[in-house]
């Protein structure tokens, strides 16, 4: 019980620090090599939802990669991204 309470407290403190003013948006800042549809219907509800795209950044911050499923929904592409 104490561990759960501690975990929930840490999560709430982390979320409190994450505000819209601390986030930056960079619209169309990465050119993808293949067509990509970020919104797709959920098969269980039919409602549209945004796809998650895995992103990895090296510990030194010099190398980053973005993985995405292309619009044909048959191929996964991993593309290097400039993290600066």
Give the ordered list of helices and strands.
HEEEEE
Global Rg: 17 Å
Overall mean pLDDT stands at: 78
Distinct helical segment count: 1
General form: extended
Number of strands: 5
Q: Give the neighbour order of strands across the main sheet.
A: 3-4-5
Q: Main β-sheet, in a few words?
A: 3 strands, antiparallel
Proportion of residues in β-strands: 25-35%
Secondary structure: helix percent: 10-25%
Structural class: alpha+beta
Uncertain stretches of 5 or more adjacent residues = none
Distance between the termini: 43 Å
Signal peptide: 1-16
Protein name: Dipeptidylpeptidase IV N-terminal domain-containing protein
Keywords: Signal
Could you explain how this protein is built, in words?
Residues 1-16 form the signal peptide. This is Dipeptidylpeptidase IV N-terminal domain-containing protein. Keywords: Signal. It comes from Verticillium longisporum (Verticillium dahliae var. longisporum). With 84 residues, the chain is α+β, with helices and mostly antiparallel strands. The protein has a domain at 32-84. It is built from one helix and five strands. The chain has one helix spanning 2-17, and strands spanning 39-41, 48-50, 55-57, 64-69, 76-81. Strands 3-4-5 form a three-stranded antiparallel beta sheet, with no helix packed on it. It is extended. The model has no long low-confidence stretch (mean pLDDT 78).
In short:
This protein has one helix and five strands. It is α+β, with helices and mostly antiparallel strands and 84 residues long.
